[in-house]
Design a protein that fits this description.
Number of strands: 19
Number of helices: 1
Shape: globular
CATH architecture of the largest domain: Sandwich
Helix content: under 10%
Mean pLDDT: 94
Number of domains: 2
Distance between the termini: 19 Å
Length: about 250
């Protein structure tokens, strides 16, 4: 079933995370849930925003599930690579990445999962918990969203590939749609579900119009569901997960 999440920084779920409680880390971050996972459903999606404070550091770590991260504000470093909006990063389960180093304006990014995931498992201290399996740690160059005037003047749909589709189904694109038009999303075989993230303009979803940083999860069998832009046009990130079995 499709899930729609809208960012609301006033939510009670917004919590502060002390990064400096971990080795090789400093500062703090704030977390705001966008799509809350159902704890009883291991196949439910999960999405949240992390806002690291200026010049903070989240040391290298890994998670127990596949995830995308999208830089949405500020800038900094992911490992040795500079990042800014809208850099897309993908890390497969039990694959280490980082550190995440915020610049002087802080670093904000969405974390997007097709299935609920655990908190960070920190490296190198907890490396013994890392399980064997295929490793994937990739990121895209940044992609800018168009301004309002450019979206309103847009006459045709265009697609920018951010992460070249891989055999296992991983892929990412920026889809640009004129105002009030309907378009099919890019799709690669072996889809384990897609997120559509509003980077600019607005999008129609479940009978309403949603705006900047709205996150829509579409399960794998529904990945060919069309996308309809709002009256301002739409720049939307389409992020595809690989197929994977439902965990017990």
């Amino acid at each position: 079933m499709m899930r729609v999440g809208v960012l609301d920084r006033s939510r009670l779920s917004r919590v502060t995370v002390r990064l400096d409680e971990q080795p090789n880390s400093r500062g703090e971050a704030r977390r705001t849930d966008v799509i809350v996972a159902d704890p009883a459903d291991r196949a439910a999606p999960q999405a949240f925003l992390i806002e690291q404070s200026p010049e903070s550091i989240a040391s290298a770590h890994f998670h127990d599930g596949n995830q995308f991260q999208v830089v949405v504000a500020g800038g900094g470093l992911l490992g040795k690579h500079p990042v800014r909006p809208y850099t897309v990063h993908y890390a497969s389960r039990h694959t280490g990445y980082g550190p995440l180093v915020a610049g002087t304006e802080g670093l904000s990014y969405l974390t997007l999962r097709a299935r609920p995931g655990c908190p960070p498992i920190w490296l190198p201290g907890q490396k013994h918990l890392m399980q064997p399996g295929p490793r994937c740690n990739i990121e895209s160059p940044p992609s800018d969203a168009d301004g309002t005037a450019d979206r309103l003047a847009r006459k045709a749909v265009s697609v920018e590939t951010l992460l070249t589709p891989r055999d296992e189904g991983i892929a990412a694109w920026m889809l640009r749609i004129p105002p009030g038009e309907r378009a099919m999303p890019p799709l690669h075989p072996k889809s384990g579900g897609q997120y559509r993230v509003v980077a600019g303009g607005s999008m129609q979803a479940e009978g309403r119009v949603v705006g900047h940083l709205a996150c829509i999860f579409v399960p794998g069998p529904e990945s060919d569901t069309a996308i309809t832009s709002g009256p301002e046009g739409l720049d939307v990130l389409v992020l595809q997960f690989p197929e994977e079995p439902v965990p017990a």
